[in-house]
Design a protein that fits this description.
312 residues; Rossmann fold; alpha+beta; globular; two-stranded antiparallel sheet; 6-stranded antiparallel beta barrel
Length: 312
Amino acid sequence: MKTNKWLVVVNPAAGGGKAGEDWPRIESLLDSHSIIHDAVFTNRRLHAAVIARQKIDAGYSRIIVVGGDGTMNEVINGVFAQKRIPTTEVMLGMISVGTGNDWGKMFNIPSDYNEAIQTIRDQKTFVQDAGVVTYCKSNQTWQRYFINIAGMGFGARVVKRSNALKEKGKSSPGLYFATLFTSLISYRSIRAQIEIDGNAFRRKVFSLNVGIGKYNGGGMIQVPHAIADDGLYSITLIRRMGKLNVIANIRKLYNGKITSHRKVEAYTGRVINIDSSVQLHLETDGETLGHSPMAFQIIPRSVKVIANGISA
C-alpha cells in the first residue's frame, strides 16, 4: 500500500557513531518541520540496501538517508533492487553525518542539520545519472550501483585502509588524507588494459577514477570535469608517478586542477572495461568492493535526489 510518509534510514555508526548520538536532535528537527516519517536503523553492512528495497516494495517512495556516502550508496542499491516502481519515482534526501560527505558537496547539501532538513522540505529535485559496475571478488562476479565515484588503484587502497580504521572506531575528516601518506610508501602502479567506448589502450595506472560526481576522499576534486546528468562517465587517469611527485601535487587534487598535470589523462565515456594481470582494486562511493576485471555502464538520469543547486 502506497504511503506519503518519509522513510528515514539511519546508520547509527556513521561519523564514528555521531549519527546515533545526534539522532534524537535530528528527529526533533524533522518533527518541527512537519516531516511525517518512519525511522529504521541499520545494524550491519548492506542493511540499508535491504531496508530500502523492502520498504519501497511495501509502499514508500520518499527516503531520507541519515549517514554518510556509504549509507547513501547502500540505499541506491536497494532502489535499483526493488521492482515496484521506476527508480526515478523514488525521491532521495540526505542528512549528512559521515566523515567524507562528498556526494552531498556536488549538490550543496548543507552540513547543518536544520538547513539540510529545510532543503528536504523544499523538495527541489535533480535527476542524476547512476553507474553500475561488475567486478570480481572471491572468484565470483558481483554487481554494484553507485552515484558518485568509483576509484581504482591507489585511491582504492587508501579507502580500504581508511575503512579498516573506521571499523576500529577511528574516524575524522582528515582520516583519508592521513591514510594517503601511509599508503603511498609501499604502493606500486599496475599495468592495465582499459577500453572506453570501444577504444582500447594500455597504461601503467597509479590511480583511476570513474565519476558521475566530482568529489571524493573528503573534499578532493579528482574528477573536475564531471557532469551529473550528461549520460557520461568522466574519467581521470593518473599514470605511474613518483612518490615525491605525488606529494608535490597534492594541492591539485583539492583545487580541481589535477587534469592539468602532464601525467594525468581525462576522458568521457559510457561503457568502460578494465583488466589487469595484477589485481586492480575497486571502491565505489567510499565502499571497498573487489578487483579487476571490471565493466562499467552508465544509467542516464535514473536517480531523483533532493538538491540545493549544483556545485560549479
